[in-house]
Amino acid sequence: MDDLETVCYISLSSSSTSPELFGDARARLKTDLVSVDGSDLEKDSRFKKTKEQVKDLIESPGKQSQLTYSQTGTEFQKKVWDYLVYSTKPGSVLSYSDIADGLELPRTSSRAIGTAVGANKLAIIVPCHRILRRDGNLGGYRWGIDLKKKILALEGYSVK
């Protein structure tokens, strides 16, 4: 955590944080993350609060997140991620074209938006699972289509 009290990195792993939800995503996370010694973090009240917020979000993704996040990316990627975080609600879905419209970009930006979404490494916090193909199909998901279905269902979206 930095001085601004934003989440820079957090990892939760216990039997009470829905490990079955993430399943085989651990292998993917190992390639995305670098371990750091966080032994002193458990004593930090800000960390404890953030840890509880993330745990709550994982266990109840239907709630709107109140977390502040920070993720390395281009300005365009950050713009797309912020749109997903601050302009979508649990249980709702949208397409890349919808994001382009919301960001007042040409619809030809859909491919670039898809690339930005694919670079997101903060599952659930940046809710890229809410993006469907324009034809209503689920499309892809960095952590696997089965996890995408589970998260959408937990948020109250009727997965077809």
UniProtKB/TrEMBL annotation:
Molecular function terms, GO-annotated: methylated-DNA-[protein]-cysteine S-methyltransferase activity
Reactions catalysed according to its record: a 4-O-methyl-thymidine in DNA + L-cysteinyl-[protein] = a thymidine in DNA + S-methyl-L-cysteinyl-[protein]; a 6-O-methyl-2'-deoxyguanosine in DNA + L-cysteinyl-[protein] = S-methyl-L-cysteinyl-[protein] + a 2'-deoxyguanosine in DNA
Instruction: Check the record and name the Pfam families matching this protein.
Output: DNA_binding_1
Q: Which stretches make up the Methylated-DNA-[protein]-cysteine S-methyltransferase DNA binding domain? A: 75-156
SUPFAM superfamilies this protein is in? Answer: Methylated DNA-protein cysteine methyltransferase, C-terminal domain (SSF46767)
Q: What is its EC number?
A: 2.1.1.63
User: What InterPro entries has UniProt attached to this entry?
Assistant: MethylDNA_cys_MeTrfase_AS (IPR001497), MethylDNA_cys_MeTrfase_DNA-bd (IPR014048), MethylDNA_cys_MeTrfase_DNAb (IPR036217), WH-like_DNA-bd_sf (IPR036388)
Q: Which CDD domains match?
A: ATase (cd06445)
Specify the domain of life of the species encoding this protein. Eukaryota
A biological-process GO annotation: DNA repair
Alphabetically list the UniProt keywords. DNA damage, DNA repair, Methyltransferase, Transferase
Gene3D superfamilies on file: Winged helix-like DNA-binding domain superfamily/Winged helix DNA-binding domain (1.10.10.10)
Q: Does the keyword Transmembrane apply?
A: no
Family membership noted in the UniProt record: Belongs to the MGMT family.
Under the heading PANTHER family, the entry gives: METHYLATED-DNA--PROTEIN-CYSTEINE METHYLTRANSFERASE
Q: Which NCBIfam families match?
A: ogt
Q: What is this protein called?
A: Methylated-DNA--protein-cysteine methyltransferase
Q: Which organism is it from?
A: Trichomonascus ciferrii
Question: Organism classification, top ranks?
Answer: Eukaryota, Fungi, Dikarya, Ascomycota, Saccharomycotina
